[in-house]
């Protein structure tokens, strides 16, 4: 009887796991590599000359979200132009919006400006996810693309690089399309500020940017470096999908996912996991994180602190084509002899299982940081404290000392991050309290209906501008 009962429990557990994993459709996964009033935000959020801000709406009256804020987009023709189709944040966010618009009855057409020369599994998979939901996929060039742009009620360009498509494809038709263009910008790197990318930016209906920091950066850089003026700019903070929140708030689902992933990695339930969930690249700071992690292990050893075994997990690896940078990371782990405490996990769209199995998220993006960093709010939904760099959109999400700790970018941040790892490893109550505070912040500001409301306000204004210009 005991064996039969154990077998039944195992079967039930497996069923639960399969059901949970099945929840993670594309809408759940718009997180990896890839979205208030902020006490820790250093930018001038009150300056109307910078941007309109649709990110401060606390959920004080949920009745206003009873209907979908995007319902007014029914039957509207929307053309979306992405510079690429990949597992990076920009394309995935645009895809999410495409599917949300399809859900309210919009006619959505997708164009990818740059595709790999050879057949690509990721492109094939993502295109078919859109086709299955009724999104039309067109070639970037040709008369059909031009006709669609001219006919569309709204054209959304995704990322600065997508601007190259305008001249290459539309040519002399560009002035007819610009008045109905919403430019969704995510980049924070200086090399995107090229005239050939953004020369039409002042003439579009508006720009939508994910954080105040990025909006301020674009305003200053375009003026100082290129001598052009930004159009009306809307700051729109992102929100967590309903599917992700359902899992984040399901204690049984989280426990099963936690046990399953920990078992697969050989990590015990009582061990502490600090993880980065991002594409593996120098800009995401995995190298500095590993140095901080090693330093924290030395601090724990030298001070003889009583803590459970700690582990570092890097989700976002590419097992098939390991880059020179990733080999540097792995060599560092071997050199410091910490391979039993560091785990590399292949890149994936289904990040929720990894959020369920870790204890602390590390958001260690360098230089100007993340434009927003959606994985941060997703981790907070799972009641995880966040250790983040004091840069970019992270400062508009993490309340330092309340929902996590912030540390400087660069080498100067290695020791502070190590100290923060030790703080959370040695203080269970602080770790749990920060996680709960982060969850409360997500519920107030960073849910899907918050994001939809913000985006709806932008789309309404842009459509009105396009209508006014076309009739003048």
UniProtKB/TrEMBL annotation:
InterPro entries: Glyco_trans_1, Glyco_trans_4_5. GO terms for molecular function: glycosyltransferase activity. It holds the Pfam family Glyco_trans_4_5. Gene3D superfamilies: Glycogen Phosphorylase B. The keyword Transmembrane applies. Coiled coil: none annotated. CDD domains: GT4_PimA-like. Keywords: Glycosyltransferase, Membrane, Transferase, Transmembrane, Transmembrane helix. Residues 259-440 form the Glycosyl transferase family domain. The chain crosses the membrane at residues 16-38. This is Glycosyl transferase family 1 domain-containing protein. It comes from Carpinus fangiana.
